[in-house]
Write a structure and sequence with these properties.
The protein is mostly helical. Helices cover 75% and strands 0% of the residues.
Length: 300
């Protein structure tokens, strides 16, 4: 719905309300326009949404919320390119000047600054977003992204911990935190985050990360079980066969590893796969097969 604290009812709308006797079921033309813009944004039509929001902003020149949403459409409109970046910055700065306690305006300004690689400004804006009278806690995520860009993993981790502690069940937050935890070699904690994500919604890419953490923790058997589960979901995943083959080699299960490499080659042949299978054949004493695979790798 159109932001209630800025809503201006038209005379026609008031008359309609009196006639129908129930304002709860009535919407103004501006409400419908605003909802249309939101639907266009959800559908990815930011250019069309910006046209509607521009009109609403002209009708409500002191509405900081509308101005920020307009800036977002400019920022996300791929057709705008550099022009969209300039216009979005103007919107966010104007909204901040208009309402200095509006955290969302600072948050999106930090998002803009990150996109421009202006990391000092991004930190400044996201910090402001968290300390004004009406803060936007999404800024913890944006500041964490800035810290990550600056390779400040510990600071990024602290912000993500805070964001998640606010009961933000955001998959991106868990994914970012798990990635940072891996960078810090805190594999047990990273594994826990990946499993939270998998419990909510299974994803093949996350399963690879889960298996990687288990391998780092020297829990190859569990890592293989994780990849087994992945292949139950998608038995045509060549990367999963390759990853499982690598783990089987570490366990000394060479025949099983060869079978996995062979399946991966069948699905998507590559020089790397042939070399990995050649190395395994070498360990098995099959120099003839190893030589054949190495020759095939050179050909590719």
């Amino acid at each position: 719905m159109f932001p209630s604290r800025f809503k201006v009812f038209a005379i026609g709308f008031l008359i309609t309300t009196l006639v129908l006797g129930s304002s709860g079921n009535c919407k103004s033309v501006e409400d419908f326009q605003y909802e249309r813009a939101q639907q266009l944004i959800r559908d990815g039509h930011h250019d069309q949404a910006s046209g509607i929001l521009e009109k609403l902003c002209r009708l409500h020149p002191n509405n900081a919320s509308l101005l920020v949403e307009l800036g977002q459409t400019y920022l996300n409109d791929t057709n705008e390119m550099a022009g969209g970046q300039i216009k979005s910055e103007k919107c966010f700065r104007k909204a901040i000047k208009m309402d200095p306690e509006f955290g969302k305006a600072y948050y999106h300004m930090s998002e803009w600054a990150n996109a421009q690689c202006k990391y000092d400004l991004a930190i400044q804006m996201s910090t402001k977003a968290l300390t004004v009278k009406r803060p936007d806690t999404q800024a913890y995520m944006e500041r964490a992204a800035t810290y990550s860009n600056q390779h400040k993993d510990k600071e990024a981790l602290a912000d993500l911990d805070k964001f998640i502690s606010l009961r933000k069940r955001d998959r991106k937050a868990f994914e970012r935190r798990a990635s940072i935890l891996e960078n810090l070699k805190l594999y047990e904690r990273a594994l826990a985050d990946y499993r939270v994500m998998q419990n909510e919604h299974y994803d093949d890419g996350t399963a690879f990360k889960e298996a990687r953490c288990l391998e780092k923790l020297n829990r190859q058997g569990e890592a293989i079980a994780c990849l087994n589960n992945l292949l139950k979901h998608n038995d045509d995943d060549d990367a999963a066969y390759e990853a499982r083959g690598n783990l089987l080699v570490k366990q000394g299960k060479l025949k099983e590893a060869v079978a996995d490499y062979s399946k991966a080659i069948q699905l998507l042949p590559s020089a790397t796969l042939y070399k990995e299978r050649a190395d395994t054949y070498e360990k098995m004493g099959r120099k003839d097969l190893a030589a054949r695979d190495r020759k095939e790798a050179e050909r590719l």
